[in-house]
Write a structure and sequence with these properties.
Length: about 350
């Protein structure tokens, strides 16, 4: 036997393939867990429970006209809850959203009346103003690094004071003048505050806008690069910047989207009631944020959807009108909302943990 033959190691045949051992890291989650991991699932179940509850507790709400009222109430909240939710997914929130709605409608109403111009001029100026407020919030936030709580709280106080002071200075009272007889009013009302008939039930156009904007926001979040940027900056701003995400652009445009929502809802209010009270809007920002939180958006950012706030807004509208139709004391409304908010947050937390548990 040669030396080469003696040095050659023996090679054992490979073991026969056997069944793969699955562990918690590689095991594919079941379909049920993947569904539960969606941020809108918990609020959908909650909205369904509230809906069934008031169908039983308030039989009059089953009427088509009553449901149209619930949907209208939900849409006025949902139109603002959508951009607020996108901003929260991006890691920020806006405390000035409520008074920004009123500031936009005041701008359009006073400008149109005092200058006696076509109301569309006031509408366009109000849009520029609302976008500028959003851009200002985003710019200050990114320039200074201050928390959005402080920046938008300052904007909230500024707008609240300006709304009241300027309205009194210009009109002599706390409300704008009636603009219903001005040029362009009927066309603007048809766009922002009209109704249409479905089976003998009058439905507000805001319901259509609400659902259409929700579908658009869902597509943006799930199918576009900008949607990826929103989740990225909400998850980790530094990491997002490191991989080339335009963090400043994304944050500022998210605040401008809130400004656009404030303009849209403000125009609806103006052309629905022909006049605007300058002291309104305070406290509404908490409703918008609560609808987004109930809808599954986290205050820490990086998680949420556009569909969840739709159900969150519907829950608010259902509770608001359901209490009235049930004949209960409306003083309990805010307490009910507080319980609902806490319950929704706890349910969402439990569902997410159960869905991601290995």
């Amino acid at each position: 036997m040669s030396m080469a033959q003696q040095a050659e190691p023996a090679v054992a045949p490979p073991p026969a393939p056997g069944p793969k051992e699955a562990d918690g890291r590689t095991r594919e989650r079941s379909m049920a867990l993947r569904v539960l991991a969606r941020p809108e699932v918990g609020v959908f179940l909650g909205a369904l429970a509230v809906f069934v509850f008031f169908l039983i507790a308030a039989p009059s709400i089953r009427d088509g006209g009553s449901m149209a009222t619930v949907l209208y109430q939900s849409s006025t909240i949902g139109l603002m809850a959508l951009p607020v939710a996108l901003l929260m997914i991006g890691g920020e929130f806006d405390l000035s959203a409520g008074v920004a709605v009123v500031a936009s409608s005041l701008t359009a109403g006073m400008l149109s009346y005092q200058l006696t111009v076509n109301v569309w001029t006031g509408v366009i100026v109000a849009l520029v103003f609302s976008l500028a407020v959003g851009a200002f919030n985003g710019w200050v936030l990114m320039k200074t690094g201050l928390p959005s709580f402080l920046v938008t709280l300052a904007t909230f106080l500024i707008l609240q004071g300006v709304n009241l002071a300027v309205t009194k200075l210009v009109t002599g009272n706390v409300a704008t003048d009636d603009i219903s007889d001005m040029d362009g009013f009927d066309q603007a009302k048809a766009v922002f505050a009209s109704s249409f008939d479905i089976g003998g039930v009058e439905v507000k156009i805001t319901v259509v806008y609400w659902l259409a904007f929700a579908a658009l926001a869902t597509w943006v979040l799930l199918r576009t690069k900008y949607g990826n940027w929103i989740f990225a900056v909400g998850g980790s701003q530094d990491s997002a910047r490191a991989v080339g995400v335009p963090v400043t652009f994304t944050k500022i445009t998210l605040f401008m989207l809130v400004g656009f929502g404030a303009w849209f809802v403000g125009m609806h209010q103006l052309f629905s009631f022909n006049t605007v009270q300058s002291g309104e809007g305070v406290g509404q920002e908490l409703i918008y944020i609560a609808a987004a939180v109930i809808g599954g958006c986290l205050l820490t950012g990086g998680y949420g959807s556009a569909i969840g706030p739709v159900f969150g807004a519907f829950m608010f509208g259902m509770v608001n009108q359901g209490i009235v139709f049930a004949g209960w004391n409306p003083d309990w409304f805010k307490a009910f909302l507080g319980v609902m908010l806490l319950g929704a947050v706890l349910i969402n937390l439990y569902v997410r943990r159960a869905a991601t548990r290995r």
